[in-house]
Structure formats: structure tokens, C-alpha cells
Amino acid sequence: MKFFTTISAIGLFASACLAQDAPVQTAHVTLRSEGDDHSYPLTVPADGKPVLTHSTLPIALIDAPDFNVLQACVIETPGDKNLSSKIAADGVTQQVVIDPPQAVTSISCQGTCVETYGACFDTNGQYVGACCNGLCIASRCRPWNIGQQS
Predict the structure, then answer these.
(1) Where is the signal peptide, in residue numbers (predicted)?
(2) pLDDT tens column, 47-73
(3) Domain range spanning residue 37?
(4) By the number of CB atoms within 10 A of the CB, which of 23, 53, 84, 90 ranks highest?
(5) Is 52 a domain residue?
(6) Taking 90 as the threshold, does the pLDDT of residue 18 lie above it?
(7) Is residue 5 in some structural domain?
(8) Is-cis flag, bond preceding 23, omega within 30?
């Protein structure tokens, strides 16, 4: 009976430890109008809750330097859109392209990603997760531009 009680207590303790909330990552994005005449920053916690923009400015690009917005976020607009990605002129920042440009009413993100130079595979060779801004090379998340930067 003591053995069963001990095992039960260990199980309850382990599940309580696992149930603790992990820190929520945050996407720091910049929404850019067509022609880059106007832009504004938006901070989106990756908790699945939509962050309203309260803006009618038509957005063509969303800079996403620290989170995989195209894969892990929902971008709400009033009309149909095609979303794609590209790398900004700086050769580093990933951008989400909104075609046709239109107002973004909200953005919600969920999940986690591995920071630049973080391990995308653990010591047992198990995949940890997608890179926030770059790609996995030799078990580390590398920035998009692995060459020289001017």
C-alpha cells in the first residue's frame, strides 16, 4: 500500500510540474503600407488570442524579425488574400506579403519557435521546433543570410 501511495504522489507531483505554464513567446511585427509610406509596430503574444490593430491602413508587408508569423499566426483581413513570404532588403528580416494589400484587423499567434542559433534538434536527435527567423542547419537555427552583411 505504501508503494502505491508513493507512486501516486510522484505521479501527481510530476503532472503538476508539467502543467505549469511555460513562458509565452511574443511576435514583434511591423505592419507596412504599400510603398512603405506608413508603418506601425504591433506586439502579439503567442497565446492564441487575437490582437486588434484598430487600423484601416492597407498593409502590403508585415516584418517578422523574431517569430515565424506565416506558419504560426492567423492574419485577419476584411477580404480574401494570398499570403507569402520574402526576405527584406536588409537580407535578414522575414516578411509576410499580403496580396492584395488591405487592412489587417487582427493577428493571433500560437506556439513556439527556436531563436536564432538555438538548437533545433536536442541531444537525442529529436526535433525541437521550427526556427523563428531562419532555417535549421547543422542542428542550429541559422539566420536567413548566412553570408556577409553590408
Answers:
(1) 1-19
(2) 999 999 999 999 999 999 999 999 999
(3) 26-109
(4) 53
(5) yes
(6) no
(7) no
(8) no
Residue with the three cell numbers 514583434: 28
- Return contacts of 85-93, CB within 8 angstroms, 24+ apart: 87/144, 87/145, 88/63, 90/149, 91/144, 91/145, 91/149, 91/150, 92/65, 92/133, 92/143, 92/144, 92/145, 92/149, 93/63, 93/64, 93/65, 93/133
CA torsion sign for 111, 116, 118, 124 is: positive
Task: Judge whether 40 lies within some domain.
Answer: yes
- The pTM score is 0.76
Amino acid in the structure at residue 107:
I
SS3 42: strand
If one counts the domains in the chain, the total is 1
Three-state secondary-structure class, residue 91: coil
